[in-house]
Amino acid sequence: MKMFSVLLACLMLSMPALAAVSPQEAARLGNDLTPVGAEKSGNGRDIPAWTGGLPKDTSHVPGAYHKDPFATDKPLFRITAANMQQHRNRLTDGQAALLQRFPELYFEVYPTRRSASYPQYVYDGIKTNATRATLMKYGSGVTGATMSSPFPIPTEGLEVLWNHTLRFRGHSLGYTAVASSVTSSGSRMDVLREYQYFMTYSTPGARPQDLDNNIFYLKRKTLAPAKLSGSITLVHETLDQVQSPRKSWIYMQGQRRLRRTPDLAYDTADINTDSIRTIDQVDMFNGAPDYYDWELKGKQEIYIPYNAYRVHQGNLKLDDILLAQHINPQHLRYEAHRVWVVEAKLRIGFSHRYATRRYYVDEDSWSIVYAEEYDEDGELLQVTEAHTINYYDMQVVFPTLEVTYDLENRRYYAEGLDNERGATINFAEDFNPKDFSPNAIRREAVR
Fold this sequence. Notes:
Elements: H1 2-12, H2 23-26, E1 77-79, H3 93-101, E2 107-109, H4 120-132, E3 134-135, E4 142-143, H5 157-165, E5 172-182, E6 188-198, E7 214-224, E8 232-238, E9 247-252, E10 257-260, E11 292-305, H6 318-321, E12 334-346, E13 356-362, E14 368-374, E15 380-391, E16 396-406, E17 411-417, H7 438-446
Antiparallel strand pairs: 1-2, 3-4, 5-6, 5-17, 6-7, 7-8, 8-9, 9-10, 11-12, 12-13, 13-14, 14-15, 15-16, 16-17
């Protein structure tokens, strides 16, 4: 199979790269389109026009929880298994499946707040990307882009996918959070981790030739429980995911050595997720797109998790959030938004746990907010939600909670639970690439 993959990749290298848009098209950004490429106008009903999103809050203390700017909003209505047919045209197949599988689950729909906003230099970077960014041959990566999403006016599925992969997520950030695997009976395995990122791709002033094929550096360290404490995953994420796959290392406390791991990709089970989630489901989707054909299905108005400040609070306990079989819906918020819909079909000759994958990408942030995973018989296996907020101290849209539901076994995996921690993401960290070298990790591990 590996030889077949190599031959197919070589064959597709002859395909022409897709061109950037013209200056005339790019001029739409900030006019009829928002600076990131969304439709600026509303729909005339319940989706308002974008008017700039949330402003930067310079008084916010780095790492503190974010107050809910929409705390006085009242829910408009509740969608349940009993009434979901009235709202079916705005529900994904995955959402309908969740309501059918868990009759006590519901979606509380609130007024739509188009809160997404980014710093001006991010908007400037996106506009520059629009006229110079191109897909590498067969979509393995992107050239000519920096800072944020490279294709604000996309024409095909791979462009939308790379908009998510390369969306702006800050520069240097760190946080601790719990990831929990929850069984159908409600028993849990909670794992506390420390996350540190340095986003090379979003370095202010960086030129495409300065990136050295790097998107970001990541260190993920397990702090608890004691039997797992001290294990570290190190990732150097590459821009060309096929010709130069990501570099990754794992340090296991019991083995007391840092080892290179070439299989930290695709459908390898993510560590300590009870095999619910694959590596390429982290951040909704990550890594090389070469196993799939990607089709842009168009835009759709649906109810999506958004402005999830209610669940992003330090006074909430994990027991308040993590119920048996699903997240407690009373802490969640859904709104009507436009999304790009992209469908991925597994290519002939490739093997993956999921044969078909469908993604719903928020037009205002390029964040995947819903993902659906199907087997080769077309049976829906999993649904994943990203509950995002605008971290308005940095002005960046980022998930505060990701939840992957295993429909068949009625279990789920939740990540990003920073409740009870006393702090959330700190975008003011001062990391640098040297902090993410294998030698730096070895020194840290032996201390």
